[in-house]
Write a structure and sequence with these properties.
- By secondary structure, the chain is an alpha+beta fold.
- The protein contains 16 helices and 22 strands.
- Helix 1 packs across helix 13.
- The longest helix has 22 residues, at 79-100.
- The N and C termini lie far apart (60 Å).
- Bound molecules: flavin-adenine dinucleotide.
- Flavin-adenine dinucleotide is lined by residues 13-19, 38-41, 46-49, 53-57, 59, 184, 207-208, 242-244, 246, 250, 269, 318, 327, 393-394, 396, 428, 431, 433-436.
Length: 500
């Protein structure tokens, strides 16, 4: 056991896409600051950010029906969709900046163009999709979206889904070619390689066990070096808790008032992956359906062309389920260990409110492979069980907190930054829209924790992200410009032409 005291400017806990993004932003804005990273696993991007643990959708609200709710008057609310689209444009701009500055070599190592489609069945759903299409196509951010309920057109768009379909129920889809498949695992690894070149000290197999305030206002982080068994103490002016599902327990250890009365609700995931190259070749797109009644938003079924390990793949899912672990590599005691005197009533209230969701998730865990194939057949009527294998995806820990409109113990489906009033520590909780909006979320961390630097950083931020602080809905010309320039920098146009 050693008792080393090491000082640094910034500590990033966890080597997922969020720490990777924050570290990369900080290296551009304050290159002289010393950064250390502690990751308990052996390499970067192994938990939720790993390509097999998430769906790799560049969420820009081009196909996700849960981002456009139907209002009581029957009209479609697109405000969430425009917000998410604008946030995704920031990610595209940051990645483009890194490519143009030669900090990322080949964008196709992590991003590929892929049409995004929404598909619905039944009269009511078709009428909703049409209304949604009309609302979105009047908005500059969704130009180029097409709608069709013509079976011949649908056969052209989604031949695999249309083959063997016998139901007479009406069917409709929307399609937009500017969608993307993002390999967030590869992106995370690329960003950590870049950070290493910039002299960031990255410590793998180092688990953070505790955080304490020192008398001089710094944070002391207790780290367990898993290989040597040593305990180290590192101090920093600012700590980012980017532990994914592991963030909540670390946030609780800080003891900051903002960490109280917050709980976590873990949701596990499964995908089915196709092992038949002939089937994989017959599909090209990300096709999002509608969540079943009573299913949470993260279990919206979708059939996705993915690019993983330099190969085209086909995945279906995710099937949500219940597991008490906060990380895929976590412990069955994570959930119970997160119940503290300050959040026990919040957690109990959520438990009582979300009984039906818990029941649904447990039922989902118990589904046999054949039952899952039946759900897949709603997308691919001719799907054969032997063509599909099951892969376990990442864990999402949804935030539970007391809210004004939801009351005590309300389950949140979004992403949440929790920070100390003095900005010395921030944690990221929740998982949706997730990695796609990492740049926007990390900008929020910077705005909250470094307000004194934002004025001097603004010029550099605008150089990297021209749409920072600007509404793209209100500036359609800027949107056009950004969409075109990022498509060029990320080499998304050429591939779109090849596949269309
Ligand atoms: C099934 C599923 C599908 C998804 N689909 C999409 C999608 O299509 N598009 C999208 O944009 N997002 C998607 N997401 C969300 C996205 O994956 C996450 O938002 C994102 O990866 C979170 O990144 P992170 O860096 O916060 O966490 P992670 O990638 O989980 O990284 C956290 C890291 O912290 C480490 N860590 C934890 N505790 C400690 C500790 N005490 N000490 C040291 N290290 C620690 C972990 O080992 C891990 O490496 C999906 C998620 C899931 C689970």
């Amino acid at each position: 056991m050693s008792n080393l005291q090491k000082k640094t400017d910034i500590i990033l806990i966890g080597a997922g896409v969020m720490s990777a993004t924050l570290g990369s932003l900080l290296k551009e804005l304050a290159p002289e600051w010393e950064i250390k990273v502690f990751e308990k696993l052996a390499s970067a991007g192994e938990e939720s950010s790993n390509e097999w643990n998430n769906a790799g959708t560049g969420h820009a609200a081009l196909c996700e029906l849960n981002y456009t709710a139907e209002k009581p008057d029957g009209s479609v609310d697109i405000s969430k969709a425009t917000k998410i689209n604008e946030q995704f444009q920031l990610s595209r701009q940051f990645w483009s900046y890194l490519v143009k500055s030669n900090l990322i070599r080949d964008p196709q190592d992590f991003i590929m163009p892929i049409p995004h489609m929404s598909l619905v069945q039944g009269e009511e759903n078709v009428s909703f999709l049409k209304k949604r299409f009309e609302a979105l196509s009047n908005n500059p951010l969704f130009q180029g979206m097409e709608f069709s309920d013509d079976l011949e057109k649908l056969k052209e768009w989604i031949p695999l889904i249309m083959e063997g379909r016998t139901s007479n129920e009406p069917l409709a889809a929307t399609k937009i070619d500017s969608g993307t498949d993002v390999n967030f695992g590869a992106l995370t690894r690329i960003l950590f390689d870049h950070l290493k070149e910039k002299n960031v000290e990255i410590n793998y197999k180092h688990s953070v066990e505790d955080l304490k305030r020192t008398s001089d206002g710094l944070w002391e982080v207790k780290v367990h070096d898993i290989e040597s068994g040593n305990i180290e103490y590192h101090t920093a002016k600012f700590v980012f808790i980017g532990g994914g599902g592991g963030s909540l327990p670390l946030l609780q250890k800080t003891g900051i008032p903002e960490s109280k009365r917050i709980g976590g609700f873990p949701v596990s995931g499964l995908f089915m992956v196709c092992n038949n190259p002939e089937v994989i070749e017959q599909h090209h797109g990300k096709v999002y359906g509608k969540a079943k009644v009573g299913a949470p938003p993260m279990s919206v079924p979708h059939l996705d062309t993915r690019y993983i390990d330099n190969k085209k793949s086909l995945l279906f899912g995710p099937f949500a389920g219940f597991s008490p672990k906060f990380l895929k590599t976590g412990s069955n005691l994570d959930l119970i260990g997160s119940v503290k005197p300050n959040n026990v009533f919040t957690m109990l209230a959520a438990g009582a409110k979300e009984m039906s969701l818990t029941k649904y998730l447990i039922q989902q865990v118990l589904l046999s492979k054949e039952k899952r194939i039946e759900e897949l057949r709603e997308f691919i009527p001719n799907a054969k069980s032997e063509d599909w294998d099951i892969v376990v995806a990442g864990q999402r820990v949804q935030v539970i907190k007391d809210t004004e409109d939801g009351g005590k113990g309300t389950l949140q489906f979004g992403t949440e930054v929790v920070s100390a009033a003095d900005g010395s520590v921030a944690a990221l909780l929740g998982a949706s829209p997730g990695a796609s909006t990492a740049v926007q979320v990390m900008l929020e961390v910077l705005e909250r924790c470094f307000p004194q630097h934002m004025f001097e950083w603004k010029e550099k931020i605008k150089e990297m992200l021209p749409s920072y602080d600007v509404s793209l809905v209100d500036n359609p010309e800027l949107f056009e410009e950004i969409l075109a320039s990022t498509a060029e920098a990320l080499n998304l146009n050429e591939k779109q032409l090849v596949h269309s």
